[in-house]
């Protein structure tokens, strides 16, 4: 079964927890004892209904105990698909947490209160989703029961949001009028909104086409581990290269090149945990054996002879800054890209992006906590990379503080710097 990863985003009190609770409940993913506990909690709080938001609010209590959980994950499945939901925080000061939750997502569900329409938060979250290369956005206009299921109100919100997203690189935007509290258009079509002829949310999540989002053209196989005879159970002539296929398709018999040496060879065998296969594709983890005994080590990259990544020490990237200490020119960090680590120097902060208006603040010379901006970097050793919008796997990196070992930034590589 295909797996769809999606993130929920929206302002505080727009109903994200209720929406997830309703999805789990209406798709029969909630155990009876869980439901009984939620019913008891709802009565104790004085709610007049079963508060499905409490299904996901167990994590809120953990936060109150001082345990930091940035993004809450929920898993469920239907006969058609498996799902992983990343419930991301709504506040402005948690932009970095939203970046974390969305970085592995195929789709973002954005919630808007029908009474308020799109807010600054809505625009921020849509912009971040676009920057992260997410191709599918679903705008759920929630609380339609509080505006008497008014079609004109829904159409007005949809037009406003469509006008904003035309400035973003998001090509698939779907708008659905819902009531998470009552269950309108979540799993079942609403009887109150017969004027709406689109799909319910769950049906859309089951059917949205994501397989073509993955890059199956550019072969990129970053080597994570070299398996030598000693570690191969006494096979004296065994030499394999283990890692995860980042993009493209690798087949036995393919002619390949190895970066940075440029040496070429042929794929002799592809091994998996379940035995040998004739071809491998992302995100499979495999061991590749080559016909020639080449000098290959961790951090090298296997690609096609006539389709190679950029190779450069000078990088240009959009960076989301995640540290209390601002980022400015002259800063030294450690950069992790695929399986490769390198020291890096920040040469320049080109501009800070205002994610609400998409305005580029050229005067800004530093990035503060939760800021996103364009940064020029120089690494100690060359990276083999692609532009982020073409290849999310080889176009992304993280920045790590040398002294504390904390992750302080996430980056998306732009076109070749020179």
Topology (SSEs and partners):
Layout: E1 3-10, H1 16-26, H2 32-45, H3 58-64, E2 72-77, E3 82-87, H4 95-102, E4 107-113, H5 120-131, E5 136-142, H6 151-165, E6 172-177, H7 201-207, E7 220-222, E8 225-227, E9 240-244, E10 250-251, E11 255-259, E12 264-272, E13 275-277, E14 279-280, E15 285-290, E16 301-304, E17 310-321, E18 327-328, E19 332-337, E20 340-353, E21 360-361, E22 366-367, E23 372-385, E24 396-400, E25 407-413
Parallel strand pairs: 1-3, 1-4, 4-5, 5-6
Antiparallel strand pairs: 2-3, 7-16, 8-9, 9-15, 10-14, 11-12, 11-16, 12-13, 12-15, 17-23, 17-25, 18-22, 19-20, 19-24, 20-21, 20-23, 24-25
Would you mind describing this structure in some detail?
It is a single chain. The chain is an alpha+beta fold. It folds into three domains: 3-213, P-loop containing nucleotide triphosphate hydrolases (Rossmann fold, 3-Layer(aba) Sandwich); 220-304, Translation factors (Elongation Factor Tu (Ef-tu), domain 3, Beta Barrel), CATH 2.40.30.10; 310-413, Translation factors (Elongation Factor Tu (Ef-tu), domain 3, Beta Barrel). It is built from seven helices and 25 strands. The chain has helices at 16-26, 32-45, 58-64, 95-102, 120-131, 151-165, 201-207; strands spanning 3-10, 72-77, 82-87, 107-113, 136-142, 172-177, 220-222, 225-227, 240-244, 250-251, 255-259, 264-272, 275-277, 279-280, 285-290, 301-304, 310-321, 327-328, 332-337, 340-353, 360-361, 366-367, 372-385, 396-400, 407-413. Strands 7, 8, 9, 11, 12, 13, 15 and 16 form an eight-stranded antiparallel β-sheet that branches. It has a six-stranded mixed β-sheet with strand order 2-3-1-4-5-6, with helices on both faces. Strand 4, helix 5 (120-131) and strand 5 form a beta-alpha-beta unit. The longest helix is centred in the middle third of the chain and has 15 residues, at 151-165. The radius of gyration is 24 Å and the shape is globular. The protein starts with a strand and ends in a 5-residue tail after the last strand. The relative contact order is 0.11. Residues 62-69 have low confidence and may be disordered.
